[in-house]
TrEMBL record:
Its EC number is 2.7.13.3. It catalyses: ATP + protein L-histidine = ADP + protein N-phospho-L-histidine. This is histidine kinase. The chain holds residues 256 to 519 of 519 of the full protein. It comes from the Bacteria. It is an enzyme of class 2 (transferase). Residues 41-260 form the Histidine kinase domain. GO terms for molecular function: kinase activity. The chain crosses the membrane at residues 4-22. Keywords: Kinase, Membrane, Phosphoprotein, Transferase, Transmembrane, Transmembrane helix, Two-component regulatory system.
């Protein structure tokens, strides 16, 4: 009986070992795929604006365009694509700082209405060109809170960028600010493709991208945006809420504590 006991123990150890080995290999393979998808997504995201910038700059440089209005159009495209590139690079830098624990927020007095208005103004050209209408519902009573303006601006840019990317026929975006209990909030809503309840659980995971649906396939992205937004909002002792219905649209809400104790 002692020998049988020993044999069973050896069997259990072997099976556990094989199972652990299988699990690790599976995890490594998954990580390798996530990494290679990320590199290919990001390379694609960087290559497209670079190609456009280089093409339009070359045309301008050769002096082929006689009409001023056409030249203006090309300058606008170059500006827009540069902004897009800088958004991508900011996201990657933010992500690497977050991963290595080097992300530092610099707090100061911020009126969140200014952030929403700045993003709306800076993106105006982009919205018009893509056929989007943006309506804003700003609460003008809001007082300044202790926050990092640049970080929050990046959060709103990421949410607005997603609202544009994941909209189909109805190209409407709503930006809203307000107060709820001890929080001020910034809300970005779209009437786009929406997110299924199953996928909703994962959208804040780093590298996560919903792959289903033709539209989601065509939209470019790195899967980093929302994980960065989540992290930056948590750095403000805030929280982020999402309400979404497939085929109807999504609302992302950043809630920021009115009295947060973070030091400037
Ligand atoms: P990505 O670079 O893929 O846009 P994000 O982290 O910003 O990465 O978003 C993760 C995923 O969440 C996206 O791939 C998309 O499937 C989904 N998603 C984000 N925002 C929206 C939205 N407004 N409407 C529908 N789906 C969205």
């Amino acid at each position: 009986t002692q020998n049988i006991g020993l044999l069973i123990l050896v069997d259990i150890l072997l099976i556990t070992g094989a199972w652990l080995f299988y699990r690790n290999v599976k995890r490594e393979l998954h990580l390798a795929k996530v990494k290679s998808d990320f590199v290919s997504n990001v390379s694609h995201e960087i290559r497209t604006p670079l190609a456009l910038i280089s093409m339009y700059a070359e045309t301008l440089q050769l002096g082929r365009l006689k009409e001023e209005s056409k030249r203006q159009k090309y300058y606008n495209i170059i500006y827009r694509e540069t902004q897009r590139l800088s958004g991508i690079v900011n996201n990657i830098l933010n992500f690497s700082r977050i991963e290595s624990g080097r992300q530092k927020l610099s707090f100061g007095n911020v009126n969140i209405n200014d952030i929403v208005e700045d993003v709306n103004n800076n993106y105006n050209y982009h919205f018009n060109e893509k056929g989007f209408t943006v309506d804003t519902d700003i609460n003008h009573e809001l007082r300044s809170i202790n926050a990092d303006k640049q970080a929050l601006t990046e959060c709103v840019i990421n949410l607005v960028d997603n609202a544009v990317k994941y909209s189909a026929d109805t190209k409407k975006i709503h930006l809203r600010t307000g107060v709820r209990a001890s929080y001020q909030f910034i809300e970005v809503s779209d009437e786009g493709i929406g997110i299924s309840p199953k996928e909703l659980k994962h959208i804040f995971d780093k590298f996560y991208r919903v792959t289903k649906g033709a539209l989601a396939h065509h939209a470019k992205g790195s899967g980093l945006g929302l994980s960065i937004v989540n992290h930056l909002v948590q750095g403000h002792q805030g929280k982020i809420e999402v309400e979404s219905t497939e085929g109807k649209g999504s609302t992302f809400r950043i809630l920021l504590p009115i009295n947060n104790s973070a030091k400037p």
